[in-house]
Amino acid sequence: MSALGRALGITLTGLQGDVVEVEADIGGGLPAFVLLGLPDAALAESRDRIRSAARNTGLPLSPRRITVNLLPAALPKRGSGLDLAILVAALSADGAIPVVPDAAFIGELGLDGTIRPVAGVLPAVLAAAAHGIRRVVVPGANLHEARLVPGVDVRAFEHAGELLAHLGVDTSLLVRHGAGHGAVASGSARHDPSTGSDGSTGKDAARRAAARDSSRPDFADVRGQGLARYALEVAAAGGHHVLLSGEPGAGKTMLAERLPGILPDLDDAQALEVTAIHSLHGRGAISALMRRPPLEAPHHNTTMAALIGGGSGVPHPGAASRAHRGVLFLDEAPEFPAKVLDALRQPLEAGELTLHRSGGAATYPARFQLVLAANLCPCGRTGSPGHDCECTALARRRYLSRLSGPLLDRIDLQINVPRVPPTQLTSGPTPESSADIAARVAAARCRQAQRLERYGLSHNGEIPGRLLRTELAPQPRETAQINRAAEHGWLSARGIDRVLRIGWTIADLRGAERPAKADFDIALQLRQHREASA
C-alpha cells in the first residue's frame, strides 16, 4: 500500500515565481528515487543530495521506490531551491512528519543536512505571498532577506534536523549537529530604520540621504565644470540620459560617478523591485532593502549577455537590469562594440528587457539612467591644447560611429567637458556638495510627482510624447528655437520630445509652475552643446 506526501515550493523564471506542488509517493518495486515534472540538471541531482541529507540527519528516507512529482508538470523547474520541499514531501509520505499544506519550503540541502542559502529568495517569497501563502521556510542565511516581504511569517533554519524537530520529530531520533537552535522570526518590512527609510521628505531628507555615507563620491571634489555639473543636476532631477564627451582627464568619469549620490532615495515599491533583482543575481546575503539607486559600470570589453542579460537556460539579468532605478555608466563608450551599445535602444524606450533563450523567456525591468563618457577620437587629443591629434579622419569616423545616430537620439543631454584650467584646480571657492544639489533635486522631483501623479508617472523623463503635445504642451512662441532646429534637421521628432522634457525639468529646478521660453532654449543648448563644441 502506497502513501502520499505533499509540500509546496517556489520556482523562478527570471523574476516571475510559480508555486510548485511537490507530491511524493512511496510504493512497491525496486528501490529507486524517481523525479518527474521537467526538472533541470541541478534539480535532477537533488535525489542524491536529499537521500544523503536525510540519512545524516538521522531520519533516512524509505528504502522503497520513491516517486516525486513536481506540479504543474508542464512547467520547467530550475535550480536547487526545491530540495527542502522535496525532502519534506518525501518524509511526509513515509509518515515521519505530518503534511504541511500551507507553507512553502525554499532551500538547498548539503550532504550533511545543512540548509544552504539560495539566490532569488526575495522574489520567491514575493511570489509565495502573491499566491496567498503566508508561511515560508528559508535557509538561515536568507532570513533577513525573506523578512523584507510584509505579511509573511518567515521561519529560517540552519539544518534539516532543526526543521524536522520543529515539525514534530522526536529529537532523540535526530543526529546531533553543531548548528544550535534554528533562527525563527516573523517577517515584516514596514519602515525598518536599517533600510534607510525614516518616512521624511523634502530638503532635509535629501541632505541626510546624501550625507549618510562620507565615503560616497561627492560633487565637492569636482573643481570647475559648471556646465557639466548643472547638466547632471538636470539629469538627476528629471531622470534624463547624458553623454559627456571631451579629452582624457577632463573629469568625465569623476562627474558620472557622482550622479547616483544626488538621486533621491528609492521608495518602498522601487526598493523592493531593485532588491529583488540583486537577490536573483546572487551577489551575497541581503539584509535590508536597497534604498540608494544602484550604479553599474561595466568594462568596455563586456559582452552583450553581460550587459543586457543572457546565459544558458533561462536568461539571467545583466548590468542594464541591475542598474534599474539607478545609473548605468559606460566609460569609454566608443570602445564598446556597436551592436552591444545598440542593444540598449529598446530598454531606453520601454524600461524593460524581454530575453528569449532556448531554455525559456524572462522579462526584467531596466528603467535606468544611461551615462556615456567618450573621448573625441581614439588618441583623445582632439581639442587638447599643446597636443596634436594623431588619428586619421577615417579612424575618428570609425571611433565615433560606434555611437549610432539612433542611440544618440535617445540621449537627452549631450555635453562637452573641457579640461579645467590649473588655477581652478588649486584655488577658487569650494564647490557645492552633493548634499546641497540633492536637496534641489528632491524638491524638483516632488513637484514632478505631484504634477504627474494622475498620469501614473513619477518624473519628467517618463512623460510620453502624447502628453507633451496635449495637456503639457508649451505655447508656440516658447518653442520657436526648437522648431527652427527641427527644420534644419538638428532634431528628430524624438529629439523634440526630449528637449521638451528637459525644459520641464529646468522649470522644476527653479520652482516654476510651467516652463518659460528661456527654459526650452537652455534645454536645446544642453542637447546640442556637444555638436556645437566638436
Q: Which structural class fits the helix and strand makeup?
A: alpha/beta
Q: How many helices in DSSP terms?
A: 22
Give the overall shape. elongated
Q: What CATH architecture of the largest domain do you see?
A: 3-Layer(aba) Sandwich
Which CATH class of the largest domain applies here?
Answer: Alpha Beta
Report low-confidence residues grouped into runs of 5 or more. Answer: 178-184, 186-202, 530-534
Write down the Rg: 28 Å
Question: The biggest beta sheet, please?
Answer: 5 strands, parallel
Q: Please provide the count of β strands.
A: 18
Helical coverage, percent range? 25-40%
Number of domains: 2
* Biggest sheet strand line-up: 11-14-17-10-18
CATH topology tier name of the largest domain: Rossmann fold
Q: Beta-strand percentage?
A: 15-25%
Tag the structure with descriptive keywords:
single chain; Ribosomal Protein S5, domain 2; five-stranded parallel sheet; 2 domains; 18 strands; disordered C terminus; 534 residues; alpha/beta; elongated; Rossmann fold; four-stranded mixed sheet; 16% strand
Describe this entry's structure for a reader.
It contains 22 helices and 18 strands. The chain is α/β, with parallel strands linked by helices. The chain folds into 2 domains: 3-173, Ribosomal Protein S5, domain 2 (2-Layer Sandwich); 215-533, 3-Layer(aba) Sandwich (Rossmann fold), CATH 3.40.50. A 5-stranded parallel sheet has the order 11-14-17-10-18. A 4-stranded mixed sheet has the order 1-2-4-3. Strands 5-8-9 form a 3-stranded parallel sheet, with helices on both faces. Helix 8 runs parallel beside helix 18 (434-452) and helix 8 (226-238) packs across helix 21 (493-509). It starts with a strand and ends with a helix.
